[in-house]
Amino acid sequence: MSEADARRERIGWVGLGRIGAPMAERVRAAGWPLVLWARRPEAVAEAAWAGGEGPSGASGPVSSVGPVASVAPVAPVAPVEWADSAQALAERADIVCTIVTGSDDVGALHQAMMPRARPGTLFIDFTTAAPRVAAAAQRLAAAHGHQSLEAPVTGGVAGAMRGTLTGFVGGDAAALHRARPLLLAFANKLVHCGPAGSGYRFKLLNQTLMAGILLGLADGARLARAAGVPAEALLPALADGTARSMLLDSYLPRMLGGEGPVTFTLALLLKDLRLAREEATALQVSAPLLDAAIAAAAAAIERHGPDAGVQALAR
Fold first, then answer.
1. At what angle do helices 288-304 and 198-227 cross, to 10 degrees?
2. Which of 144, 147, 151, 216 is most buried, with most CB under 10 Å away?
3. pLDDT per residue over 210-222, tens digit each?
């Protein structure tokens, strides 16, 4: 399918959170018509870029908001419609995209939408979920004549806004070929990890590695504060050393300063780490770092609440 033909497909999108909203906006800016449904009524008002009138009567300007406004559309900016339910969205879409909280949410949406979708609909989930979710989605999709992929992403809110996410894709290569033009609206790297479930598994490996870095950053930030090392001296000193990483650049200033934007919450971190631990248990693999990270995230939630950013690990 050519990219021009792909843009004739209507995209159903469920998930307008911190990463889902800028992903969806990049899809719209690249020329795909969107049908949106929000599980949270407040997301309608928050998605001001979508314009039009949402199911709750909220409306917003058509213009983009924030850094995503710099996206240069490669096609006329596409229309956006709102659906009154997940089922209604599925009936109107050629490709259905979901990016929600966790495994149970994905499964419930698929159970609601797949029976109502037209045969041949492609379902793509971007959530960080358990590998078993992909197997269930594939079985349900096959029973109704659909295709399914999982493509959890990494790169954070900034990557979603810039269109530089990495997608870990699990599922059939033919379905990925169909989805590729759409995915490249917000990702600059797509990795076909293997059959259904492989994409979720790669994402859980990513989160395991990330947890180790975050724990190291939190300890380092506490040491620096106790020693009176100023952030303006520490960050330039580390800039070209072996500790350099994207997470260091992004989170160490927030950990040292005790504030900054919340782009990834403690609750989501804990959810992801527990999924990774479940995978390790199923594979009978020892994972002491995961155990330590789970304990640290749970303790930070006790101190600061589930909606605090992961920079609270250092406090």
1. 60
2. 151
3. 999 999 999 999 9
